[in-house]
Amino acid sequence: MTGWRASVSDVEALIAARHGDPFALLGPHETDDGLAIRAFVPHAETVAVEDLDGNRVAPLERRPGTDFFEGLIPGHKKRFGYRLRAENPGGGWTFHDPYSFAGVLGATDDYLLVEGTHRQLYEKLGAHLLHHEGVDGVHFAVWAPDALRVSVVGNFNGWDGRRHQMRKRVDSGLWELFAPGFGEGEIYKYEIVAADGIVQPLKADPVGFAGELRPSTASVVARTDNFTWNDDAFLRQRGEGQARRQPMSIYEVHLGSWQRGEGNSFLSYDELADRLIPYAVELGFTHLELLPVSEHPLDDSWGYQPIGLFAPTRRHGEPAGFARFVDRAHQAGLGIILDWVPAHFPTDRHGLAHFDGKPLYEHADPRRGFHPDWNTAIYDFGRKEVSNFLAASALYWLDRFHVDGLRVDAVASMLYLDYSRKDGEWLPNPDGSNDNKDAVAFLSRVNQLCYGEHPGTVTIAEESTSWPGVSQPVHEGGLGFGFKWNMGWMNDTLDYMSLEPIHRRYHHDKLTFGLLYAFSENFVLPLSHDEVVHGKRSILGRMPGDRWQQFANVRAYYGYMWGHPGKKLLFMGQEFGQQKEWNFNQSLDWHLVEDPMHAGLKDFVRDLNRAYRGHAGLHARDCEGEGFRWVVADDKDQSVFAFLRFGGPDDKPILVVSNFTPVIRDGYRVGLPETGRWREILNSDASVYGGSGVGNLGAVEATEVPAHGFPASAAIVLPPLSTVFFEYEP
């Protein structure tokens, strides 16, 4: 400095966007001579200081050959509120100087971020509409500890990184700037200069609350803290009882392809609420599980390679639209589960990869930081700021959008250091073990936070190995998830059902083996999107036989599934017998529902859900061995399975019998715990579903004829390729 004037070197550095501390140069500065005010205003010929009432205070002098202006106000020793008035031949404009405002973040924010315990990080980072020091604007904050410079850029400043350079908080690596006059809808990115002086590709906001519609990639200023909610009654009820003892029948949906609009366009969140919510409710599902709605650049990823972990995808509208969707689901009694992806992220230039010029969010060693299956980056779960960022994302969806649960994708890839890697391609622990201790600690903490901060919500793990205690509490040595997908059950049963009935006798154990471990975890039985793509065919397409037999097989299979212990999940389209594989780029084949066989299957799924929800014996002990007992487990020659389901002591037991051959078995005797009337409550072969109409005339009578280790038994009719449910009526 030369007195109150800026030095030539400072001005040159600022104009070149390489000044180390623009706040030390720009804005108001108290000097012995008075208050010096400096500003960088491209396109201006003159700049003057005005008070907040619009009165001219003093002109600023333009440094020759630059857009840098400075001036001294001798009568002012202290800072005061002011605006700048700029003019050029095209006219004039007035604006508040962003460098005249104090910072918003505090030492506590620095400390909690570095410690990794900032539970509501999304209330500090990102872009927040704020009334600060008497002025409305947007506060921007981003974490980039190794950057030399970070600027907010957008249409508002011609994407000029010199205009809104941010203040660095040295203790945490956070950068912040209050931008007066900014409002909702502003499009922005961060321009970052790495430690080596190289300007990085423009970055979207890691904690941005909205994004542009792809292929555009900028973040958008949006509010997510002011939604009007009408779901108090639902949230109160959600917190009652234990989730594992409540019915949970999940309809898994990809919002982009459940239905499409005119011209194959995406439906809006409101249009989806109009159509999808009543449909799921009518079919009796308890929850919708949505494939990731976090903003993602590539449709082909189905959302599983997200860029914006805090932004509902723009494909269907603004964040407020997604909030309305959740609210309307809750008012209809339907829970919402989101697929959430903390395992990895894509390496798109505008995303998290090498965010401040070198690995920041990803692990620096590619043996831990690069995923060979998906060509994505793996988060550095051991870095506290990164785990804090991810945990905040989980809490954000539960808090701001009232979401009822998170299904965590690709958990197995997080738990094992050698997941999908050959010898020499992975970095073991010092003791040679292959468990990712940082990921284990992260997942445990996220589960504790979700259940602690939002009682009544659930977390579900997609975990495909035998890792112990996935759904056990953290304090008992588990990972703390509420539920785990039962991938083994899914693979075994689909393999069995794809066989011609004559060959099923040789693979009988594929349907019985799952009961050996059915209560080792709180399981969800998933027939998910992964099972109807990449050449696997649809569920209906996997079934052997002619058309009638294919539908009969599906109905019998679903009956076995809904009777089997475990919560239920069915991917969209499989409820009515989608024939083709799922195509993420077009609507389901809704015209099929006009066909009686497809309509019959849909009606059967509806009635399965009604039976499952209406009979405690079918859901209350889904995760407890006391809720299940085999009756017939070894009749491989006839491919018959029979078992009992129990609820509480006051609930009626349910008998489930499946016949996986196309042969009618008349007078098939099954053991029962009680004599008396057992009412047929559901029959997959009923003519109303497209079956042959074979059944038990409403009920069977159990007499004191011991069988299968029980004191009583009944002779029943087993329809071909069927599952039949009976309820005891004392």
Automatic annotation (TrEMBL):
PANTHER family named among the record's database cross-references: 1,4-ALPHA-GLUCAN-BRANCHING ENZYME (PTHR43651:SF3)
Keywords attached to this entry: Carbohydrate metabolism, Glycogen biosynthesis, Glycogen metabolism, Glycosyltransferase, Transferase
Pfam families for this protein: Alpha-amylase_C (PF02806), CBM_48 (PF02922), GlgB_N (PF22019)
Gene: glgB
Oligomer status and interactors: Monomer.
InterPro entries, per the entry: A-amylase/branching_C (IPR006048), Branching_enzy (IPR037439), GH (IPR017853), GH13_cat_dom (IPR006047), GlgB (IPR006407), GlgB_N (IPR054169), GlgB_N_E_set_prok (IPR044143), Glyco_hydro_13_N (IPR004193)
Catalytic residue positions: D409, E462
Primary enzyme class: transferase
EC code(s) of this entry: 2.4.1.18
Protein name, entry field: 1,4-alpha-glucan branching enzyme GlgB
Domain Glycosyl hydrolase family 13 catalytic: 252-606
Claim: Cell inner membrane is one of the keywords in the record: no
Gene3D superfamilies in alphabetical order: Glycosidases, Golgi alpha-mannosidase II, Immunoglobulins
Cross-referenced HAMAP family: GlgB (MF_00685)
Gene Ontology MF term list: 1,4-alpha-glucan branching enzyme activity
